[in-house]
From TrEMBL:
It comes from Cyclotella cryptica. This is G protein-coupled receptor kinase. Residues 306-593 form the Protein kinase domain. ATP binds at residue 335. Residues 224-244 are annotated as: Disordered. The keyword Amino-acid biosynthesis does not apply. InterPro entries: AGC-kinase_C (IPR000961), Kinase-like_dom_sf (IPR011009), Prot_kinase_dom (IPR000719), Protein_kinase_ATP_BS (IPR017441), RGS (IPR016137), RGS_sf (IPR036305), Ser/Thr_kinase_AS (IPR008271). One of its GO terms (molecular function) is protein serine/threonine kinase activity. Keywords: ATP-binding, Kinase, Nucleotide-binding, Serine/threonine-protein kinase, Transferase. Residues 226-244 have a biased composition (Basic and acidic residues). PANTHER family: G PROTEIN-COUPLED RECEPTOR KINASE (PTHR24355:SF18), G PROTEIN-COUPLED RECEPTOR KINASE/RIBOSOMAL PROTEIN S6 KINASE (PTHR24355). Residues 58-116 form the RGS domain. The lineage of its organism: Eukaryota, Sar, Stramenopiles, Ochrophyta, Bacillariophyta. Residues 594-661 form the AGC-kinase C-terminal domain. It comes from the Eukaryota.
Amino acid sequence: MEELQDAIEDAQYVSAISSVEDGPRPVLPWEIPSEEQLAAWRETVLAKNDADLPVPFEFEWVLARALGLFLFSAYVKEVRDDYVDMNFIEEVLRWKATRGRLRADVTSTIVSKYLTTVPMPVMVEEEANASNNENSGEGAALLANRRERPAKTEITETDLAMEPITRFTPEKIQELRAQCYDASTDRSAVGLCGHVLDGIVSKVDQLRNMPGFGMMNVADLGDSIKSNESRSSTEKDEPKDYKKEGRKKLSIISKRLPDDLFDEALVIIAQIVKEKHWEGFQKSEQYTKLLNFLWFQDRRVVEEDFFLMRVLGRGGFGLVTACKKGTSGKLYAMKIMNKKRIKIKKSEQLALNEQSCLADVDSPFVVNLAYSFHSKEDVFLVLDLMTGGDLSFHLCQKGLFSRKECLYYGARIMLGLQALHDKGYVYRDLKPENCLLSEDGRVRLTDLGLAVKVTPKLHGAAGTRGYWAPEMLKRDKNGKRMMYDHMVDWFSFGCMLAEFISGTNPFRSEKALNFGLAKAKDQLQSSTNNSKDDRKRAKEKAIDCATLEMHPEFDSEFFSEEASDICRLLIDKDPTTRLGAKGCKEIMAHPYFSDVNWEEIISDRTRPPFIPPRDVNAASQSEIGTFTEDKAFHNTVLDEKDEAYYKHWDFTSTKAYTAEVIQFLIYERETGQPLLPMNVDSSCCCTII
């Protein structure tokens, strides 16, 4: 019966992850607050607001939230049928998030669509008469309509928001509006004119003459450079990497585009939109939806909000299970840790460290925390669901990774480590098992249970043997453990990169074990037994000895010159000279990664080299097993002191919640009808109104 139940759960899980592209499938209606609940919540939000921040529920505050911008944009475009100004604002906000070649491309698009003179058709007689009347509102409207309007677009991102540009006072914005905005101008599609428009166009025109500006890609630019240089080159010239030269020139172009290029234009058009539509929005259905969704975000998350699916793995204190958020239909992984098991192992601080680190680090290269909450018996971490399996699973399947896979996985893992380091954490548990693939093949770090803040007194081995750095094992002359910092992660990274390339960890290989056993021979001979425990201890001592004393050799059958060099530099036993001492940029600059387009990796635009099958990329549920409730478990009692550990455990990620809601609303927009929960009476509408 258990096998049948496991098979059913496997089938349900595969069906759920395979149908994600068909849209969210909620199973619970959104809770709608009463007028009293909403009023009390609004008062709380207002009371907590910082005086230096925008006033809650006002225009700037709403548009600074992705959900607020999304719903305001929907109101302006759908209800008021006025989209050009909103499209311009959204395009500029996207531009602000770009770098490198993409920034050059988007700049060219914005200028050509919204800020250049558009050919005007011949006016019919009534338009000409209307335009002659300067005081005629009808005349201004006709003049505006005779321009060719850019095509309407919709927000498809879940993180597009407009942070206030605080250097512009309300008085300055009004001054810019008076000088540089004219609804009847034929100079731009959004009504900009004067020195603001001239300044943007002149800066962009200076760059248009540079090779590569606009829609030219790196390969085209490389060919252009090669063609120009070939006129004066000789056969004695050294060969050049023209694509690299192209990237370099595009980088120069993007750096010459100031970050505030569109700021004045943005505040002017935002002010125009506010004057035209803010009052109406506050009375609209979209504004009511916004308040209800934000209220729901602040309510306490509970276990009943989620529906459990297949067990994916087992940790030290509980199981990791696939789950669905009831209201949005979003799939997540839920890590459930039993408070009694945590108490038995005296690991409260480890659990708190993991929650704190997950809540603190927001990176596309690390599995992110969406929610954390607790019940009387358990604590819960709700995380990104990575359905593609871990790299250990795929490495076992393949034997070793291709060069493209090594570069891609190595680059993303490196950036994940740096994201942790930037927040002051050291990971301490890097290994292939802790690198998970998403359904589209993107890799992220997971299991931050051993991650801690770096302190001057940090010491003690943590993680998995064979990935430990030597400084974790060394002791000073008094026999005390040596202190270490984030450099231990780069040693682990070197071990893992070598494993990707050859299929074998250099300190867990047969050669390393033989080296360690030979070195520790005298110590091992003192053990008279040959029990399983003795053999395990012997292997552990051998791995530790190899880590401390062995200098691995890298077989040229698997390792290129650059690959062997970077691995040697990363597993340097001296942390002060180890590659990465100056941060991950030092590793990124190594010749081994010369083919990596870091701009595209960092912006998450590189296509993964391997797409995992849509299957259960995990061990069988019988192999994962369960926890036995032994005598120690039953005898353990939780008291008020234990509960006090978790008083700050509850957490909701604004980013994750907003993404859920916007994906939900996009699906409603695409289908043109409310998204109703499955298996719930159809009279219960799931849409918040």
